[in-house]
Here is the input.
Amino acid sequence: MHINADGKIVGRLASEIARMLLGKQNPSARPNAVVAEDVVVMNTDKMRVTGRKMTGKIYYRHSGYIGNLKEESLESLFKRDSREVLRRAVSGMLPKNKLRNERLKKLKMYHGEK
Here is the structure.
């Protein structure tokens, strides 16, 4: 399945992709299996974000060492790699189980037209 992300809002696009990765559109889909076909997203650099999320939304990561809490705003992550913004949004909408990483491998994203 191919999706053009040009002008689409990140959250709405992520929920649409999560449904596809779960196989909700396929009548023969099972919850304990991964969908066979890939979901390809083009133009991730042209996605939109509403409200003040560009400056207000912060992504955190911690290495496990004391004082190593790193933070990055959505704006800087979007400039660095817009595909990572969409991947994190889709990942948060998938069930937290052993199939999550397998489903995310079926998601292919590109900055422009391929």
